[in-house]
Write a structure and sequence with these properties.
six-stranded parallel β-sheet, three-stranded antiparallel β-sheet, alpha/beta, about 40% helix, elongated
Length: about 400
């Protein structure tokens, strides 16, 4: 079995969530990711996120930095820049998630680093990108959900705008950046010429509007918040209250609607002119939903799930703990375990990318600067005396 990205070395100047998530995806697939951490700030701020924190490590940090190495290096001083440039010459890619105007100012783009290594791929994941009116502004997932319109149509009709409960744009931006870097690396291998890869959280959020954006741009459509987390146009596709909780059903095909009516014991409703097509159900949605809701209240969520499985796409509304213990999640090895010197054996969510014949690995995120000496010795041939001198100067 092969390690897919074995032999690829990525220097990562990034912290907190979106950027480290992007490089962890690549590290899981076998890339050597060297996380460069500033000794003057005691490393990635994610190391100090409560509540589950011990000294300069936290479960939050662990969830974004599996399978990486940590190099303590001050890039603000000449000696630190020299070490960084020597590593660039021996690497395949440089990743950062700084503010959009910083990569060029700090020499982390291809215009600067391509002079050292023409094959280097320079990937930037920022809030607003490296160009445009807001490239010099910081930004976070929460802001992107507001700017991209997500919050305006998320939540109940009589409630305030709401964000998604998880940082979905941070993670989607991480996947987009990982894909962009992989494409850049493929092209560099083919042409021996590197490039800049520019990914922004706002661009990612806008790109995921897909059909809603098409409807708006061409027909002026504005989505509204709909009760019970219902789909904007497909009926039924929403939450329904049961006798003891909630269930979600999604009839994305006519056959699922027909199956639903049969399972619920109302087969005539499937043939009713008010309900017999996507368009008619949309036009008569209040009648359709109220009829179904009365029936769903007659049984428990588990009872309905047993009846609907294999007939209609359906799911319970799980708690976090229930979601992580779903049999399908476990069957797909989406919970991995790693040994940590302080936390002990810890569980994490795994990489969703499954590639046949590829070897998988899971090593705990590194302690701050734990690989500094090994990297300097093995990659750049520094001596113990030189390393000690760098420590005394505060370079590492």
């Amino acid at each position: 079995m092969s390690v897919l990205l074995e032999g690829i070395r990525i220097l990562a100047v990034s912290q907190f969530g979106a950027g480290p998530f992007a490089t962890m995806v690549l590290a899981d697939l076998g890339a050597e990711v060297i996380k460069i951490e500033d000794p003057t700030t005691r490393g990635d701020v994610a190391r100090y996120v409560p509540p589950y924190r011990i000294d300069s490590d936290s479960l939050y940090f662990q969830s974004f930095n599996r399978n990486k190495k940590s190099l303590s290096l001050n890039l603000r001083v000449p000696e630190g820049k020299e070490i960084f440039h020597r590593l660039v010459a021996a690497s395949d890619a440089v990743f950062n998630n700084l503010r959009g105007d910083r990569p060029s100012a700090l020499g982390l783009n291809y215009a600067s680093l391509g002079k050292i290594n023409p094959r280097i791929v320079c990937c930037s994941l920022s809030a607003f990108g490296t160009t445009g009116l807001r490239s010099d502004e910081p930004g976070y997932d929460y802001l992107m959900q507001a700017l991209a319109g997500y919050m305006s149509f998320t939540g109940e009709p009589d409630g305030p705008p709401m964000r998604c409960g998880v940082s979905v744009i941070d993670h989607a931006g991480g996947f987009a950046a990982a894909l962009g870097m992989a494409a850049g690396l493929f092209n560099a291998k083919r042409t021996a010429i590197g490039c800049d890869v520019d990914v922004s959280l706002l661009d990612t959020a806008i790109s995921m509007l897909t059909y809603l954006a098409a409807w708006n741009l061409n027909k002026g459509y504005e989505p509204e918040r709909i009760a019970d987390s219902a789909h904007q146009t497909i009926i039924p596709a929403q939450n329904f209250k049961t006798s003891d909780g909630y269930i979600v059903v999604f009839c994305a095909k006519e056959k699922f609607w027909q199956n639903l009516c049969r399972v619920l014991g109302i087969p005539d409703l499937a043939r009713d002119p008010r309900c017999s097509s996507f368009d008619s159900r949309w036009e008569n949605r209040k009648f359709v939903i109220s009829t179904l809701q009365q029936i769903f209240l007659r049984k428990t969520t588990c009872e309905w799930l047993a009846l609907l499985r294999g007939e209609v796409p359906s799911a319970p509304i799980n708690t976090l703990g229930q979601a992580l213990s779903e049999p399908q999640v476990l069957a797909r090895d989406m919970i991995v375990e790693v040994d940590h010197p302080v936390f002990g054996r810890i569980k994490q969510v795994g990489n969703p990318i499954k590639i046949g014949g590829a070897q998988r690995r899971a090593v705990a995120a590194p302690a701050f600067g734990q690989d500094t000496e090994g990297i300097l010795i093995n990659c750049l041939n520094y001596t113990e005396e030189q390393i000690q001198n760098l420590r005394e100067k505060g370079v590492i």
